Amino acid sequence: MAILAGKKAIIIGDRDGIPGPAIAECVQSAGGEVIFSSTECFV
Questions:
Q1: Helix (H) and strand (E) counts for the chain?
Q2: Maximum separation of any 2 CA atoms in the chain, in Å
Q3: Is residue 35 part of a domain?
Q4: Does residue 1 lie within any of the structural domains?
Q5: Residue 2: inside a domain, yes or no?
Q6: Distance of CA 21 to CAs 1, 12, 13, 36, Å?
Q7: CA nearest neighbour of 24 among 40, 1, 8, 43
Q8: Is the per-residue pLDDT at 28 higher than 90?
Q9: The domain containing residue 13 runs over which residues?
Q10: What is the pLDDT of residue 41?
């Protein structure tokens, strides 16, 4: 049973924290669909 099965996600990662592609992989492995993924710098 996937936690995010059938859900869509918008991913905004942090350059100094967890990058967007890493979060996107977690969402996809949990059954979710990634609509947008980006890594930003919050300074």
A1: 1, 2
A2: 38
A3: yes
A4: no
A5: no
A6: 23, 9, 8, 10
A7: 8
A8: yes
A9: 8-40
A10: 92
C-alpha to C-alpha distances, 4 to 9, 22, 24, 27, 31, nearest whole angstrom: 9, 16, 12, 7, 5
Domain count within the chain: 1
pLDDT > 90? residue 34: yes
Tens of pLDDT, residue by residue over 4-16, are 999 999 999 999 9
Residue 17 lies in a domain: yes
For 8, the token pair is 């869509």
- Gap between the Cα atoms of 37 and 33, Å rounded: 11
With cut-offs at 50, 70 and 90, classify the pLDDT of residue 1: low
